[in-house]
């Protein structure tokens, strides 16, 4: 087997999927072709045996089901095989580098999982009497103390369930503070490069969104902010480091201008992983910031939850933290759950959720903090920035950077200029990465950059891992520039499913599975 110039084995042409013979089953060794549950399930099979119910009088009346429920069933072994096979088709942080920019897909230490399953933690219930969950309340208080120390803020709301939920919490605190002053400010400034949830959150609670134009490098010009200030401006929602992977160098001046106008500074904390132990947002002038525990403190990411997005608040907003919250009385944490328990000066804007937050995520995040310590958390941030710049340095001679060749923070942003004239699109390039065993980077975001490719390796990756990733992208770039269109236009070729006809899918979507006709009937119909 020959070696290419990057030191990786070159896949022999005979290994291409299209050159291999078909198998009877459709399987390819241990890559098993798995049908839909509706295709393999039967309505007469179940993983458990249920006795026929005794005679009873239905109470649903006309609402009672008239036809069988028609849900497919599998035996227990079939169920296990079905979902295990599906899970093997997933890409995850446990299977490889996950370079999604602005998402911080970092390793989830198994120690955290062990801690989250401890008796008294894994089985704690939100409806237990407070007298039985003193340890859980103390753990929440300790997590909050760490978050406040790292951010330099005054109070923390733990109940929000995710980043966007945390944004909503912070902006609702700002809205409550404005109302408490008898003001009617209704404009929120949002930079062009902001996460899409920022303007959506502001609009959701009745604010009018005004866009702040970005400079050529994607950062915000304080003069552009000042030009938009008026007595109607309630807040600015700014991400720092921003979504172009750059630190907002004028953040202190922007905060000062916002405060001078009587408005508030909301910071999107999605990229907090780049500055933990390096900069305290409270000292930068921030009034509210959500913290994604999955992005910065290694709790599991995605999958529909459970999530956690605590919000830290400055002294200007501390009184408006939602119920429930933890009050320290001496050295004792007290969980305040109702308005009846409030003290003078505590004016929460209401309640975000029924209960206190997601205990499993709190435990995982605190486990990560305690195992790293303050110096370890700082090193994680430094390593995240180092790794991103290592990727930048390894690709800058072949891939184009919209902000020029300048040091980035935790993620590096490329655009598609280097693909001009090659016939290869940003999407083609990303699909080819799948064939190489990598989940594509974030594409077409931020929107201020045409053909954006945003790469965030995080601190989890070793030099060897990054070297292989860089070599792979270099090989793809050189193949694109050499006109090897076949490698890109048909990609992915080795994934369980080939490329989707996205235009047809958008114009003629199939939103419901329909049982295919039997072969005999289909043949007769022809």
From TrEMBL:
Q: Where is the composition biased (Basic and acidic residues)?
A: 499-518
Coiled-coil intervals: none
Alphabetical GO CC annotations of the entry are: cytosol; glycine cleavage complex
Give start and end of each Glycine dehydrogenase C-terminal domain: 380-477
Q: Name one GO biological process term.
A: glycine decarboxylation via glycine cleavage system
Q: What residue intervals traverse the membrane? A: none
Record-level Gene Ontology MF annotations: glycine binding; glycine dehydrogenase (decarboxylating) activity; pyridoxal phosphate binding
Q: Which UniProt keywords apply?
A: Oxidoreductase, Pyridoxal phosphate
Q: Which reaction does it catalyse?
A: N(6)-[(R)-lipoyl]-L-lysyl-[glycine-cleavage complex H protein] + glycine + H(+) = N(6)-[(R)-S(8)-aminomethyldihydrolipoyl]-L-lysyl-[glycine-cleavage complex H protein] + CO2
Which Enzyme Commission numbers does its entry carry? 1.4.4.2
What are the boundaries of the region Disordered? 499-526
Q: Where is the Aminotransferase class V domain?
A: 179-302
PANTHER family on file: GLYCINE DEHYDROGENASE (DECARBOXYLATING), MITOCHONDRIAL, GLYCINE DEHYDROGENASE, DECARBOXYLATING
> What's its job?
The glycine cleavage system catalyzes the degradation of glycine. The P protein binds the alpha-amino group of glycine through its pyridoxal phosphate cofactor; CO(2) is released and the remaining methylamine moiety is then transferred to the lipoamide cofactor of the H protein.
Q: What is this protein called?
A: glycine dehydrogenase (aminomethyl-transferring)
Native organism: Kaistia nematophila
Gene responsible for this protein: gcvPB
